[in-house]
């Protein structure tokens, strides 16, 4: 086969791909250049373009309308003159050169078309030669009532020509130059072009001024954000008006308030954690100093030594629990968690066994129904253990902690002094400790972890005053009284769950 015109060597690329890519790159560069400009200049430029398009459309409409109106007026005038002249008596007998004004048409040229085919159309003036054609002959032959058209004469002068019949085989032609009309339209076009340009320039300046004045709150907001980023002083900015900029300022102030609250919580977390860590560390160092002094001195009785070692062990365990609580609260689930089908009754029994070893003087009355859910077994056990530890800590010596698990609702009731109405809304806050508990061991993080675990498992936890005295903690976890079919351990990551 023979290659067609323009065929070239094959390059493995589609035709026009390079041009398409080049055009796309140019459009991107144009958009990038557009967005490098300031917002005020862009608004002014867009305003000028919109006004320019509007002015151009209006100018074109006015120009076309005036041109058509002038042409219609000329056609009507020529047709009326021609018809009046054609009805005049003996008009076709005029053979001598008669001035055009004699027929009442001083501004037109007059031409006769006779029925003698050997006689050319005769003109009553000496103007440029007009080339008449078939439309005029058709009128003379009686085929058309009249004809109106534009003819270009020798020298390039354009005429509007009207032809009407006089007698069978004859016609009267009136031709008027369009030079004066075109001169008026040319002046009109220049005037409209100048006025349109001035209007576009004025619109651009007005748009720039309006944009600059309207964007003043945005510039003020920008300066405020830059000042906040530089000084880290989260003071709210002043809000003026009730427009979109004002709503943006309100939103920015709300964001600042949330950021300030978050920073305050972070500072309080660091301060409280430092305070809570300092207490067991101080006690631990004191006990270790006593043991060291006893080793270098006369020694201490075995009972006192055993008591010091027990205190050291307890303080180390307290620090371990505190550090674990801090890590649990601070990580906010950035690590993968093992999610599996959990039987809550087993978790409860393990937690009760652990707390019994810690508080041997407290009795636990446990009654639990079978309850299955999907979650983290270790986290659930930690939450239940914290509830039981809290109840055991506040229970009197030889007191009883009542634990009930029924249809996913775990209740833990102690026989302690209860929670005051002032402290009740804050018992699940981080590091919150009532006045009565500040002299007791603990960090104020246990119940916070309970709430976090409950929320992670789509559950809730709340505290109330027990009608029989003491405190009643209620943990609700969604699930079912039987295991789900085909349940298997699942590894959950930040991207999702994988079997």
UniProtKB/TrEMBL annotation:
CDD domains: HAMP, HATPase, HisKA
Gene3D superfamilies recorded: 1.10.287.130, 6.10.340.10, Histidine kinase-like ATPase, C-terminal domain
Keyword Membrane applies: yes
Domain Histidine kinase: from-to ranges: 272-481
Pfam families: HAMP, HATPase_c, HisKA
UniProt enzyme class: transferase
Cellular component GO terms, alphabetical: plasma membrane
PROSITE patterns linked: HAMP (PS50885), HIS_KIN (PS50109)
Keyword Membrane: yes
InterPro entries the UniProt entry points to: HAMP_dom, HATPase_C_sf, HATPase_dom, His_kinase_dom, HisK_dim/P_dom, HisK_dim/P_sf, Sig_transdc_His_kin-like_C, TCS_sensor_his_kinase
Catalyzed chemical reaction(s): ATP + protein L-histidine = ADP + protein N-phospho-L-histidine
TM helices/strands, residue ranges: 43-66, 188-211
Superkingdom of this protein's organism: Bacteria
EC number of this enzyme: 2.7.13.3
Keyword annotations from UniProtKB, A to Z: Kinase, Membrane, Phosphoprotein, Transferase, Transmembrane, Transmembrane helix, Two-component regulatory system
Name recorded for this polypeptide: histidine kinase
């Amino acid at each position: 086969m023979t290659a067609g015109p323009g065929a070239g060597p094959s390059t493995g690329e589609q035709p026009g791909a390079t041009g398409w890519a080049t055009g796309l790159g140019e459009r991107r560069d144009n958009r990038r250049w557009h967005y490098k400009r300031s917002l005020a200049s862009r608004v002014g430029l867009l305003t000028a373009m919109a006004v320019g398009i509007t002015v151009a459309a209006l100018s074109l409409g006015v120009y076309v309308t005036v041109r058509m109106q002038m042409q219609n007026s000329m056609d009507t005038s020529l047709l009326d003159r021609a018809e009046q002249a054609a009805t005049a008596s003996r008009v076709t007998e005029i053979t001598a050169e008669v001035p055009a004004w004699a027929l009442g048409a001083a501004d037109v040229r007059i031409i006769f078309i006779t029925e003698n085919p050997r006689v050319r159309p005769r003109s009553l003036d000496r103007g440029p030669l007009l080339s008449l054609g078939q439309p005029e002959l058709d009128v003379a032959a009686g085929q058309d009532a009249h004809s109106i058209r534009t003819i270009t004469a020798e020298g390039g002068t354009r005429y509007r020509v009207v032809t009407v019949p006089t007698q069978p085989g004859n016609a009267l032609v009136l031709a008027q130059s369009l030079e004066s009309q075109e001169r008026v339209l040319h002046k009109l076009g220049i005037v409209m072009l100048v006025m349109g340009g001035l209007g576009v320039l004025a619109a651009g300046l007005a748009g720039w001024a309006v944009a600059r004045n309207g964007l003043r709150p945005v510039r003020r907001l920008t300066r405020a954000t830059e000042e906040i980023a530089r000084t880290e002083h989260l003071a709210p900015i002043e809000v003026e008006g009730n427009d979109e900029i004002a709503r943006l300022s309100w939103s920015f102030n709300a964001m600042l308030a949330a950021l300030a609250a978050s920073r305050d919580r972070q500072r309080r977390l660091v301060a409280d954690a430092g305070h809570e860590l300092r207490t067991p560390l101080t006690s631990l160092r004191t006990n270790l100093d006593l043991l060291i002094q006893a080793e270098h001195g006369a020694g201490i009785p075995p009972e006192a030594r055993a008591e010091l070692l027990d205190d050291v062990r307890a303080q180390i365990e307290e620090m371990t629990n505190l550090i674990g609580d801090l890590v649990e609260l601070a990580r906010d689930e950035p690590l993968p968690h093992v999610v599996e089908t959990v039987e809550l009754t087993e978790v409860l029994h393990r937690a009760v066994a652990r707390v019994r070893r810690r508080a041997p003087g407290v009795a636990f009355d446990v009654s639990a129904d079978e309850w299955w859910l999907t979650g983290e077994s270790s986290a659930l056990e930690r939450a239940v253990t914290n509830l039981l530890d809290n109840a055991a800590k506040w229970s009197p010596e030889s007191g009883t902690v009542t634990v009930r698990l029924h249809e996913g609702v775990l209740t833990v009731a102690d026989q302690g002094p209860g929670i005051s109405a002032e402290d009740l809304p804050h018992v699940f806050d981080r590091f919150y400790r009532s006045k009565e508990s500040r002299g007791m061991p603990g960090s104020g993080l246990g119940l916070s972890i309970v709430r976090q675990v409950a929320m992670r498992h789509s559950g809730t936890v709340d505290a109330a005053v027990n009608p029989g005295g003491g405190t009643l903690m209620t943990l609700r976890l969604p699930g079912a009284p039987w295991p789900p079919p085909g349940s298997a351990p699942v590894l959950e990551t930040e991207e999702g769950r994988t079997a």
